[in-house]
Design a protein that fits this description.
This protein is mainly α. It is built from twelve helices and four strands, in the order E-H-H-E-E-H-H-H-H-H-H-H-H-H-H-E. The relative contact order is 0.15.
Length: about 280
């Protein structure tokens, strides 16, 4: 066992172009890495489609003869479900333990010796992963859903660009949350407990299992303002189905962007704190 302290200098103005090139190269490597798992992508699409049918029938039953539930009509609910099944793989709520595994084995020491900050490096890789998931995991459910259900198509010209921006922001925000959960391994070594809490909490509070608009209005806004969870899935999906007027949509996306910046800053601070006194296990 030994102690390793590392510091990574931030990019200066003269190195901005080089920094963006490095970021792009790391993102490209992340894209190529996940592009090798073609069978896993196909299996994921099949699984998400099966759950899409189940969830869609449940929500349509909730709408019942009235045809609406919590402000969503039947077509909006169908779009919410099928877009959510695809967006889940793009945002990737669960299944990422790269940082925690490297901390546990001691391989994180080599990451700290690289000229790129660990938060930046892992974020670039995750954006590359999301770039691959966008056509392979998001588009198939969006194509399957309309074949069997009446879906809602956006009526506003700004909706699709705003949805894409919100989805990218959700990817960045979710990465930051997963990084913080993984970073608990710096102190706990075994992160199964935090991982379980994150898995349960994110699924329920992000709008994966049911739209958060089904909850009392006071609780909805408490979750939106007080936690980053609704910004992971609920916000981009509400933007896509045009659940709110344009001004409210912009406000929700601005709140989502604020959470993303705040969480990334927290990632930097936690990483800096961990680097002050890092006990490397197994090396």
């Amino acid at each position: 066992m030994g102690s390793v302290t590392a510091t990574v200098a931030p990019p200066t103005n003269s190195n901005v172009i080089r920094w963006f090139r490095t970021f792009g190269a790391i993102s490209g490597s992340g894209f190529r890495r996940y592009a090798t798992y073609r069978q896993a992508a196909v299996a994921g699409v099949v699984t998400n489609s099966v759950f899409g049918f189940l969830r869609c029938y449940v929500f349509l039953a909730v709408a019942g003869t009235a045809g609406t539930a919590a402000g969503y009509d039947r077509a909006q609910l169908a779009t919410f479900v099928w877009a959510g099944q695809g967006l889940l793989a793009v945002v990737l709520l669960w299944g990422w333990t790269d940082l925690a595994d490297r901390i546990r084995t001691g391989e994180i020491a080599s990451d700290l010796l690289r000229p790129v900050h660990p938060v930046t490096s892992y974020l670039a890789t995750d954006l590359g992963r999301a770039g691959y998931a966008l056509p392979t995991r998001l588009l198939p459910p969006l194509l399957v859903g309309p074949l069997f259900f009446d879906v809602y198509l956006p009526a506003r010209a700004a909706t699709v660009p705003l949805f894409l921006f919100s989805a990218v922001t959700a990817v960045v925000l979710c990465f930051g949350c997963r990084f913080l959960v993984n970073a608990s391994a710096y102190w706990l070594q075994d992160v199964r407990g935090p991982m379980i809490l994150w898995t349960v909490g994110s699924g329920v509070l992000a709008g994966l299992y049911f739209p958060l608009r089904f909850l009392p209005e006071e609780l909805q806004w408490a979750l939106w303002v007080g936690t980053p969870f609704p910004s992971l899935l609920q916000t981009p999906l509400d933007v896509l189905v045009e659940r709110d007027p344009p001004a409210t949509q912009l406000g929700l996306v601005a709140l989502q962007l604020g959470w993303a910046v705040l969480i990334l800053v927290a990632c930097r601070l936690v990483q800096r704190r961990a680097e002050r006194r890092l006990v490397v296990q197994g090396g």
